[in-house]
Amino acid sequence: MHWLRFAALTLIATLMQYDLIDTVSVAGVSPDLLIIILAFFAIYANQRDAIIASFVIGIAHDIIQMPIGPEIISFTILGVGLNYLGTLLNLKKMSFQAGIIFIFGFATIIISNILSRLQGTVVFNDTPRVIFGTPFYSAIIGPFLFLPIAWIMKIKIHHKRRRR
Amino acid sequence: MKARKHHRVSNRMLLAIFVLTGFVLLLSPQKVTGKVHGLFTGVFKFPLRVGRQISLSARVSDTPGQNLRQKEIEYQNHIANLVAEIEEKTNQIEQLSLIRSREYALSGAGLIMADVVSSTTQGSKNELIINRGQRDGIEAGQFVLGWNSIIGTISQVWDRQAKIQLLTDRDSMMAVSFDGLNKQTLLDGQGNGKAVIQWSRKKAEVGQIIYAQKKAGFLDCPMITGQVIECKMNDQNPLLWDLTIVPACDIAMLPSVTVIVMNPTK
Fold first, then answer.
1. Where are the extended beta strands (E) located within chain A?
2. Does the CB of A80 have a partner CB in chain B at under 8 Å?
3. Best residue of A10, A16, A22, A109 to probe chain B, by most B CBs closer than 10 Å
4. Residues in chain A with pLDDT values less than 70
5. Across the interface, do A58 and B22 touch by the CB < 8 Å criterion?
6. Does ipTM surpass 0.85 in this model?
7. Residue in A closest to B56 by C-alpha
8. Taking the complete model, does pTM exceed 0.80, yes or no?
9. In chain B, where are the structural domains located?
10. Distance (Å) of CA B265 to CA A119, B104, B108, B160
11. What CATH number belongs to B109-261?
């Protein structure tokens, strides 16, 4: 794992997610770049790297969306869960990846909203449009963004077809 | 030579440590964790500002119609403020108060222009980060203007930056009035660019103006803050009304805001 590249990628995605992502919003819904990146590392990295990557991306997500804590927990647990799922299922197909990003994004929003209640400052308040729209939008563009991410991270995601 | 021992933490242990860290941070006071957010916006001020400018330029088309619409809202807000001011003055005259008062609203206030570094207007947290802080005389509780209307109050101040809690923030509570300036009620932020006035005895019309109430040391005259977009009967008590309010300006489009500093020392 190229950690320096990972750090740069996460930082750029965090800065873009903070304010720039609204430029590509459709009907008030924007994709979540950090969820896409997390899904990438959960699918393609080994377990140890996936745990660390999930934790770091969780921190980045929490910094831009206070309070700090809920996303760290939800990203870390779900990232590891997705990584484990990757050992059981073949998640290299784009359609599977899109489905995984949607489920993962949806679960993250629900879990982090529930955890936010623990702190008592934020109440579950995302509209259904955001709860379903953000993971859906992320799922559509996610598998396509995997290609540049893989190129940056120098991870091979294409598998040549065997000749008969 | 002795072989060096490697104490490698197992994956399970690593996972447990990270999840525990998350819980510790979650249960830490927000005053402490909020500093991390301030540090982030402070360190990456430049790229965030560039990103915001790109974001704004993508949203705003420089058509004359758009600019006219903004000007129209600004003038409407200004007129609403003047109406509130006149009503306030009328009240004072009626009370025949001998207390010396200012000649006009905000006459004793310092107005500090600040650029918006970043904004969050979706979800529960509705807030802006501005490039002015303690050094510029910004203090927590001060009211903030956008397009001549109150958009929120300063909630957190750093050396060179400050955070504005918008009136639509889930944790925002602001004293407002809509049915006569003397009748005060609470405007409760709901997130996603909306706020509500719950259990109102008085029904409001759609489009009716909501005024932020004056507050000693922070605001010396009521000012427009939003308008009613929906008025529906309360689910539990049919005699009461729930009003949904939106800000009097498009906060997401604001490139800069004005902070009201009452009785500035300098």
1. none
2. yes
3. A22
4. 66, 119-127, 158-164
5. yes
6. no
7. A23
8. no
9. 11-43, 109-261
10. 38, 19, 11, 18
11. 2.40.10.340
